Amino acid sequence: MTELWFDSAVSLAAKIKTREISARELLDLFLARADQHAGALNAIVWRDDAAARAHADAADAALAAGTDWGPLHGVPMTVKEAYDWAGSPSTWGDPVFKDNVAAEDSLAVARLKNAGAVIFGKTNVPRHLADWQSFNAIYGTTNNPWDVTRVPGGSSGGSAAALAAGLTALEAGSDIGASIRNPAHYCGVYGHKPTFNILRSRGVLWPGELAEDDLCVIGPLARSADDLEVALQVMAGPDPQEAVGWRLELPAAPRRRLSDFKVGVMLTDPNCVQDDALTGQLQNTVDALARAGVTVVEGARPAIDTVDAFRTYLLLLRSATGAHTTADEFAGHAARAATADPDDWSYRTVVDRGVALSHYDWLALNEKRYRMMEAWDAWFGEYDLLLCPIAASTAFPHDQAGERADRTIPINGGRQPVTDQLFWAGYPNMAYLPSTVAPAGLAGDGLPCGLQIVAKRFHDLSAIHFARLMADVVGGFQAPPGY
Fold it and tell me: 135 pairs with which residues across the strands?
């Protein structure tokens, strides 16, 4: 029974349905596990044990009466703190929102519960979900279970840390700048950033808002590709406002074996200086996939200038997140943008320009985006997937000094801006593409790394299926030592 905390959610649901273990017993196992490692990790920051136990008991009673709630029947799980879950705080790590208690479940939480999941807690985030670390003034700092002196990623850092340590069976996060993908990479788990808008974010938005932000998506994190697929299918679909008029039918993965796939590989780019230890392990993974029969074309990529793509993404990104600035903050960004040198493309200046972007200029960038999307579509006419990194290194040491824009991370014995890694976040996300991060073994520093698998729009299941097959070659999820 002690190995159950690292089982997949799909396997745990099967064990519950065959009466190998009850939903209540399984929940109590995860609650005890969360208690055991709370101090070291601080990944699960809010719980409702009583409500979860009542829900687990109801799951067992339903099964005894012959009722199957769905593919996640009785499976204990947690969700990112920003998800509305009735009775729980959704603070976004900001004391201003400390009294923002959800009156009802978000659409995603409701769908997960309808599929049988037993939600028992919420996981930590950075303030405003705006960092690749997960710390805030309300809940404190979350640590990486592979090395507690290092970050678990962000903004879904608590999600990935809890999964990697076996504190939860499944997780739900969000992603606009790799917030699902980089925690999956840093902690050695799976994460999927869906095609834009196929999972609707009602109840996972800035407190009080209904309109969804450009680029931002919600999606699952898990310890297996099977779990990603089940959770994606459960969470996907239209918002209730739209359900009368459209349906979602994601195409099944057309390639079934690794030898059926033709992939492009792009392991480095001048926009982001990368640590050799990470690049080396990703190359080892690609080489293993080639030996397993994947047709690998090194250096294949769409006909898009990556500098232009990165700048376009950053401007669109900061335009989207700038909607949450105060009037005084906006005025400051606008004033600095107006006086900036036109040739200045430093990160801080790009932030100023993006926040202060006029609608006229946003429309021009959006047109540029759609032309890049056409270039991606043309490229996917020849290739099934693109394989690339999602970060510049393995998990970096905690660094909470100053502002994110000024921080650096260790790369090859030197220091590089932490924000340069946003290139790998935005390269597919700017074009609304789905991408799965799958475990790709351990780098030379002994820390996990993940490979980003980018697919054509709406071909989410192809990226996830490749991740599933990849596990047979590189081993999939590994538990961190000591857990």
Answer: 141
Measured in whole angstroms, the distance separating CA 177 from the mean position of its chain's CA atoms is: 9
pLDDT tens, position by position, 183-219: 999 999 999 999 999 999 999 999 999 999 999 999 9
Matching residue, tokens 């996640």: 72
Show Cβ contacts of residue 420 under 8 Å, excluding neighbours closer than 6 positions: 271, 272, 273, 392
**In whole angstroms, what is the distance from residue 409 CA to residue 414 CA?**
8
Q: CA 322 to CA 316: how far, in whole Å? A: 10
Axis-axis angle for helices 225-235, 9-17 (nearest 10): 80
CA angle 392/396/399 to nearest 5° reads 125
Q: Tens of pLDDT along 19-75?
A: 999 999 999 999 999 999 999 999 999 999 999 999 999 999 999 999 999 999 999
Q: Model's pTM, two decimal places?
A: 0.98
